[in-house]
Amino acid sequence: MDDDAPVTAAPVPPSAGSARERARATFTADLLAAARRQVAEVGAAQLSLRGVARELGVASSAVYRYVDSRDALLTLLLIEAFDDGGAACETAFARARAAGASAGETWIAVARAFRAWATEHRHAYELAYGTPVPGYVAPQDTVSHATRVWGVLGRVIVAAAADGDLAPLVPPADVRGLVSPAVLEFAGSLADDGRAAPGTDAEEGVVRSVVLFDALVGAVSTELFGHLHGVTTDADRLFDVTIAAAATGVGLVLRPAA
Amino acid sequence: MDDDAPVTAAPVPPSAGSARERARATFTADLLAAARRQVAEVGAAQLSLRGVARELGVASSAVYRYVDSRDALLTLLLIEAFDDGGAACETAFARARAAGASAGETWIAVARAFRAWATEHRHAYELAYGTPVPGYVAPQDTVSHATRVWGVLGRVIVAAAADGDLAPLVPPADVRGLVSPAVLEFAGSLADDGRAAPGTDAEEGVVRSVVLFDALVGAVSTELFGHLHGVTTDADRLFDVTIAAAATGVGLVLRPAA
DNA sequence: TCCGCAATGTGAGCGGTGCTCTTGACACGT
DNA sequence: ACGTGTCAAGAGCACCGCTCACATTGCGGA
Hints:
2 copies of one chain form a homodimer. Chain A has helices at 19-42, 49-56, 60-63, 70-98, 103-120, 122-129, 143-163, 181-188, 202-224, 235-249. Chain A is an all-alpha fold. The radius of gyration of chain A is 22 Å and the shape is elongated. Chain A has 2 domains: 24-63; 81-249, Orthogonal Bundle (Tetracycline Repressor, domain 2). Chain A is built from 10 helices and no strands. Chains A and B meet through helix 9 and helix 10 of A and helix 9 and helix 10 of B. Chain A binds a DNA duplex through residues 18-20, 23-24, 48-51, 58-62, 64-65, 69-70.
């Protein structure tokens, strides 16, 4: 009631911009929320622009004023998903390290956080880490968000190297030339103190991160996609064992905090 | 030309059954072939009954005479996919063992075969091991086909135990009560000579198989779904390293054949 | 103050989808 | 030779993504 004030009133109530810009912002937010809700209910592949329009009580064509296409909407949700999962891993990492956890313990904490996020946001996980939506290719804007999880895993390896918790690979693997230069550069920027631990091979570190990533996505995907259905009586514990085995596989020593 | 013979002729030319039954069988086969082709081209989620009807030069409604629904058709293709992937693993296993390969070498051969199959039949892999098709729940008939890969991985572990190539898990994992009884029974049936190697814990063996399975699906999925895009310059070698790390993680010793 | 423009919402419409149901033709077994 | 039952066809329903011409409305400049 207070909002439709006299003619020239209220130039900048809470947010900036003209009334139109504010309306646009709030409607866009509502649209994204509705889309998020719909993805959570029926999955990304079933996301329907007409459906969100219905939910918003608006003509289906109106949605196209705010979003280029269904794919563009999917891209927004995909970025959100990557950011959400990445943030979950990042806070788990930070919290574990702040609590003095060893690199191995940190890896387990990160993996658990990732799995918890995936379980709670099943469809967001599917969107980000499941089968690519058919006919849809993720634009370049998404990769920077997708790398957040990678960054955390890389820092786990860096921390392990710094703490002396990184055993040699068994059997020794020749990783020379395996990693693309751009990724090597990205990996080089991960060490907190600006310098990698002595004797650490950056290329081998990236390979270890890849193995951890594969194990993580593999464990979560098989569980969420039903391939472990009826296999175990305690999925939580099985996940922990799986994740621990992955650590051992990359030479990440699992020891309690010092 | 020879087929549309005179009125009462040719009771049982090559296959059995009446002319109607034979026609039905061949048409069903054609239908499946067309569906297979379409899945290979555009993916399972884009499989269109109208599309296969078009390809067969038939009305879309006619397809429903031969298949209950789009989902039923998907089920047939899903079973095919599981069988195909399972067969690839089985022949790789048999071939490696026949050549005297160690359990570790056999694991690598199986993993490579699985990856090769997945790469060649991308959409079949997606159908079987990717995000479940939304709104579609795989019927019970599919599980027996899905277990073929599991059987191979289980036999890898059994072989390793028999050959003394199975190191204890590091760190030791308490796997008591982790595995469902039905799966334990299935695992018990895998030993070729009818008896598990002495000192082998069946439950722990299943857990090792799960870890291998997760690593396999994880490695293939991340690669096929684009998460390793631009990371490596040699995906084949990276896969091998990943698979070797998984073996080490479950205590599967990688040694050359005796 | 008023006018023109741009942003916005609408609804019809196009071509596509899965699926159902009626209708008519054909082949089969008796 | 004839009933019976299988079959393909096509219309139709409800949904989808997307486009476009059309009103409306709010904004900024004259």
